[in-house]
Amino acid sequence: MGTEPVGRTLGGVGTKVVFEDDRVRVWVLDLAPGERSPIHRHDHDHLLIQVKGDRIAVEPEPDTQSPYREYFEAGVIPGMVTHVPKGGVETAVNTGAEPYYEIIVELKGE
Length: 110
Fold this sequence. Notes:
This protein has strands at about 15-20, 25-30, 40, 45-50, 55-60, 70-75, 80-85, 90-95, 100-105. By secondary structure, it is an all-beta fold.
């Protein structure tokens, strides 16, 4: 999806892939309190399913194509499902005191 800025290496969308077929890729994201994910890019529309935690933040990169272009922090609502369009380039940060865990379902069929 383009050339990365000098010095930036992208990581995975989540901690690990737990399922994949021709239509979806399912990741888990597991962050300890204060832990940051690698900078990553969402190349597919996806569903975020919050499982546990108390606070999570997203730090968008300047070249993000997501509608969410500003730092955003919110309380975790276990069981909440959010549809997010592709294009985000960001870091997730566990800003809470509890471990954070979510499931990310990438929709590869678009």
